[in-house]
User: Fold this.
Amino acid sequence: MDMTGKKLSAESLRRMKSVAPIPMLTAYTTPVARCLEQAGVAVILVGDTVGMVEMGFDSTRHVTMEHMQYHIGAVRRGAPNTHIIGDFPYRSDRDPDTALRNARLLLAAGADSVKLEGPKYEVIHHLVKNGIDVVGHTGLTPQTAANFKQVGKDAAEAERVLDEAKGITEAGAFLLVLEHIPDALAEKITTAVKIPTIGIGAGKNCDGQVLVINDAIGMGDRWPPFSRQYAYVSKTITEAAKTFVSQVKKRKF
Ligand code: KIV
Assistant:
């Protein structure tokens, strides 16, 4: 939200480029969303990472529109005053008309804008033309990547990612996620495009940063090496459960 407690619009987020860094976190549930809103997180991303960090799948490709609608609704109930980005699940953005239909469902579930992965310029253009605010995503794009290695290390790949960033911007996106690319490439893209870049594993010179909430709070059992961890919630839960088990067994509770 902004200084007056109002939800940030896509346009106000776009205008934050080079003015104020944008802190973004993912969330999938009401209580976590409530905490993030209270903490002053500018934008919440209901990412399809939910499939891996909360649902036990080995890939984001198993996430469906129904999953996303459910989680976006939960996050909206916890964070009524925060800009929420709803992620398109795998192939739900496969062509302009399918994407438009599904974008409207994500917005109806509670999202303010939608995010898609990769160089889908025609889809972005069609959504924007129909009044939908779109966030792009380049670099490592987990829905189609063969592995989770850093992208853009060699000159040709770096050029491709830069071109994609420019294409996504020209197609009309208002924000661009840069995932797991070299810091220098992220800096070059940030200078080259007129919309804010939001990095994840892309160095500190992006216009904002996003982390997967489970990585940030240590809720899970493994986290990408580039992620910062601010707490170890899994450990806290295990300790609490152990104490409970012991108290019940000893008839102390
Ligand atoms: O799905 C997601 O949570 C994402 C972030 C990793 C940026 O796309």
